Structure formats: C-alpha cells, structure tokens
Amino acid sequence: MAAIVVNMLDDGAFEVVGSQGEGVRVLNNDEGANKSWVIMKRDWTGVRWEVLWDFTSLDSALNAAVYEATGEEKPDYEVRMPDGMTFKRPGVKTAEEVMASAGWYFVAELIGFIPLTTSSDRSTFDVRAEFAKMIKGDDVRLGDVNISDEDDEGRHWIADVVLDYRGWLHLDEIHAAAAEEFRKEGLNVIPFFDHRTRTNVACSEAVILQFPKDRVVRAA
Question: 175: closest CA among 158, 189, 194, 161?
Fold first, then answer.
C-alpha cells in the first residue's frame, strides 16, 4: 500500500487525495463557534466545496480528513510542507507544535509601525487622530501611539498598526508578506514588522526596532 501523504497547498489548505483521486481538505475557520478547523470536500457536482465537519484541533481535523479520503482509521501518514519539511502523524507533540519548531506559524495578525513628525505643541489625542486618517481598510486597526523623540524639527511619533491576516507563514516569509500587505493598504510603514500567531504554540523572536542613536530619548 502506498504511503499516505497530506500536502500543504499554496493557499495554506492541507489536502489528502484518496485512491479515486478525490481530494479532502483541511482549512482554518476561527470564525466558527468554538471550532477552529474544518474538513471540506467537493459536492456531487464536483465544483463547489462543502464543509463536512469541524474540529477544535488541527490534529483531529487531519486524522478525520485522512479517514474520509482513504477509509482507514488511525493510519500513519506524513505531512509535507511547501519548503520540503515533513513530519509524521500521529506524534507526541501536536501538529502545530511540530510546525512551529520548524518555523511555520498560523499568523493571525501582522503589525507595522508608522512614523510621523509634528510640531511640538501637538497632543497625543491630536496625533492619534492624524494616524487614524491614514487607515482606510476595514482589516487594519490603530494601536499604540508614542513619542519616539523631540528635537528642533518637532515631535517624532511612532504608531503601531495591526492588520488581520489569517494564514500560514514561515518565519523567513513574514517580513516580505507584511511589507506587501501594508503596501496594499497604502500605509507608509518602516521596514520592521511584528506578528501575532493564532495560538501560543512556541515563543518567537522579539522584534527590535533600530532607531538612529541620535533619536533615542534617555531618561534623566
């Protein structure tokens, strides 16, 4: 019998193909009531994808998808990622933990930082309103607004903006993906980004913003 393989597709869905060539897919659906992962299969027309079941864990969804495609209960199978990384199921650690150890995360939010210089008499309330005017899309939210420095040019502000994303990304891809997503929103962000994952499956590296030394404010 051929090995059972689940592939992650370019759109982030997991797919296992049965002996008849029919694909069964697993996708994230955090908008569902207390369920995070759904299994989908084409309907009788072969055109429309329909949801079969939903699950609270990725592992449960993958196991059910394999069963739906192959008819085998609790078989061993392999998950293959786009970068060539593979791992076996079942396993001691959850699928999301294994993927996180290899740099793959389900990213829920991308975080960018917008700079702005104003006159020294502008308040945080006023400047926050200025930043808010820059945001046009419904998927972007304004976060904290802080003064990074003040000099002869005026007050230099930095605001973080949070963009809903929802998709699998490798750590090596997050910078480029964030830059592209914020470009689409027309936001003039600096080239440093952060992110939040769907669950805290592993600690990720902190992002350190490198401001010029002559712009650093030191407390007396």
Answer: 194
Gap between the Cα atoms of 65 and 205, Å rounded: 33
Cis peptide before 212 (omega within 30 of 0): no
Residue 205 lies in a domain: yes
In terms of domains, do 72 and 117 share one? no
Judgement on whether residues 137 and 201 belong to the same structural domain of the protein: yes
169 shares a domain with 198? yes
Cβ burial 1-38 (10 Å sphere, 16+ → b, else e) = eeebebbbeeeebbbbeeeeeebbbbbbbeeeeeebbb
Residue at 13: amino acid letter: A
Question: pLDDT tens across 103-162, in order?
Answer: 999 999 999 999 999 999 999 999 999 999 999 888 899 999 999 999 999 999 999 999
Residues 80 and 147 in one domain: no
Find the length of the chain: 220
Tell whether 134 and 33 lie within a shared domain: no
Strands 194-197 and 104-118: antiparallel
Q: Which domain holds residue 205?
A: 106-215
